[in-house]
Amino acid sequence: MSFPTYDEAYAKARDRRPFSNGTEGYGWLDANCGSCVHDKAARYGDEGNGCPLILVSILGRTPAEWLDGPRDEQGRYSIEGQYTCVYRRDENDPGPDEPTPVPDIPGQEELFPRDEFERPARMFSDTRPSEVTSCR
Ligand code: SF4
């Protein structure tokens, strides 16, 4: 499934404000959306092509694509980790090598329709090379 349009995101969103106050909101947006490929156009001046999930949140609904982040025993969370956006991808991350969903091979017959087994969204992990340290 592809990245949602504004209308799709708004329709699926939870009917509650995502943040308690501006500090939480701007803190989370800065930490997560500030380097995400899906809001890159808006950051570079093309504000009509910003991330629709941000717009949904500004209008007082919590996008379904924002999963609750880790909480401690008392239910506390960090500002930057309050939610995990399943579509977040760093603007410098080239993304997976394979297209998603993986297309059907031309001419291959299907035993079952795939649609109902495909995930509604795919969470990306960063594919950029990173340093690994060993601890012995
Ligand atoms: S996809 Fe998620 S992390 Fe990226 S800009 Fe949109 S809301 Fe922010």
Summarize the SSE layout with pairings.
Layout: H1 6-12, H2 22-32, H3 40-43, H4 52-58, E1 66-68, E2 83-85
Helix pairs in contact: 1-4
This protein binds iron/sulfur cluster.
Residues 32-33, 36, 38-39, 51, 53-54, 85, 87-88 line the site of iron/sulfur cluster (SF4).
Structural features, described:
The chain is mainly alpha-helical. Helices cover 21% and strands 4% of the residues. A two-stranded antiparallel ribbon has the order 1-2.
Rg estimate, integer Å: 18 Å
Number of DSSP helical runs: 4
Helix content: 10-25%
By secondary-structure content and strand pairing, the structural class works out as mainly alpha
Largest sheet: 2 strands, antiparallel
Q: What sequence of helices (H) and strands (E) makes up the elements?
A: HHHHEE
- What compounds sit in this structure? iron/sulfur cluster
Strand content: under 5%
Shape: globular
Mean pLDDT: 87
Key structural traits:
136 residues; mainly alpha; two-stranded antiparallel sheet; 4 helices; 2 strands; 4% strand; binds iron/sulfur cluster
Briefly characterize the structure.
With 136 residues, this protein is mainly alpha-helical. Helices cover 21% and strands 4% of the residues.
